[in-house]
């Protein structure tokens, strides 16, 4: 599904971005904010229906119309062929890739390492790490090959990459891997004008967060307490500002949290 456009005439006049996991949550908010800022945006994710709704001119619209600068590409980020098709469709529509918001992910089971089911671990690993690496690799190749070279890859880490919650071993371990991915992109991208940012987010209000902290969140001392949250629109605005930075500016690591959440004081 896509907006009406001739793939032989890519829209090169505007900057463009791919957002994975764009159907819901942080990805949806970021993709819509980039659209509002004038980007051509490809909405990627597993389920077509949420993507179609997110990419509509008016959020929640019940028709098949897309925003004129939006492209919808249902994508399983763990499938290398699907990721390559995503990139090809984006470039056919927009001509180049300026920004990847590498956001698709899953939370994983709420267990300790002793009770972690191997099949559940492999599922979280596939989405959070393999999917992120595949999308970053496809974006890197495109940014390296295009003229002029360059672009920005923003990896959605998590404050769990710095300080995990209890009973989150699968999620925390995979988000620590994002730190290595981002640093590697930043280093390897230097000759090609490619920069990378690990964006660690804490307690942005989404349906996923509501499920994790509804009624309170498990703390390191075993208690369950309410935690402050922040509007996801602030995160989306921050990503837009990162996306608009010139490529001679690098922001390797950025942390944004709800004020007064138990992050610096965990433990």
UniProtKB/TrEMBL annotation:
Keywords: Oxidoreductase. The keyword Oxidoreductase applies. It holds the Pfam family adh_short. GO terms for molecular function: oxidoreductase activity. Residues 1-20 are annotated as: Disordered. InterPro entries: NAD(P)-bd_dom_sf, SDR_fam. The keyword Lipoprotein does not apply. SUPFAM superfamilies: NAD(P)-binding Rossmann-fold domains (SSF51735). Belongs to the short-chain dehydrogenases/reductases (SDR) family. This is NAD(P)-dependent dehydrogenase (Short-subunit alcohol dehydrogenase family). It comes from Microbacterium pseudoresistens.
């Amino acid at each position: 599904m896509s907006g009406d456009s001739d793939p032989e005439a890519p829209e090169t006049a505007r900057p463009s971005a791919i957002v994975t996991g764009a159907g819901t949550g942080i990805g949806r908010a970021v993709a819509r904010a980039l659209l509002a800022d004038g980007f051509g945006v490809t909405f990627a994710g597993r389920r077509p229906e949420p993507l179609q709704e997110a990419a509509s001119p008016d959020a929640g619209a019940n028709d098949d119309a897309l925003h004129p600068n939006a492209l919808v590409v249902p994508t399983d980020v763990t499938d290398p062929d699907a990721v390559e098709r995503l990139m090809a469709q984006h470039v056919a529509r927009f001509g180049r890739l300026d920004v990847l918001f590498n956001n698709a992910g899953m939370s994983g089971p709420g267990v300790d390492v002793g009770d972690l089911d191997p099949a559940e671990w492999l599922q979280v690993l596939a989405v959070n790490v393999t999917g992120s690496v595949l999308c970053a690799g496809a974006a890197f190749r495109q940014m390296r090959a295009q003229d002029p070279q360059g672009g920005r890859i923003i990896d959605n880490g998590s404050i769990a990459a710095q300080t995990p919650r209890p009973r989150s071993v699968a999620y925390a371990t995979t988000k620590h891997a994002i730190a290595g991915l981002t640093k590697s992109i930043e280093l390897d991208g230097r000759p090609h004008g490619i920069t990378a940012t690990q964006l660690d987010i804490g307690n942005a209000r989404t349906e996923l967060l509501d499920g994790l902290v509804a009624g309170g969140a498990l703390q390191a001392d075993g208690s369950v307490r309410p935690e402050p949250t922040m509007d996801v629109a602030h995160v989306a605005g921050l990503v837009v500002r990162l996306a608009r930075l010139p490529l001679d500016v690098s922001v390797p690591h950025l942390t944004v949290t709800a004020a007064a959440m138990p992050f610096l004081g965990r433990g």
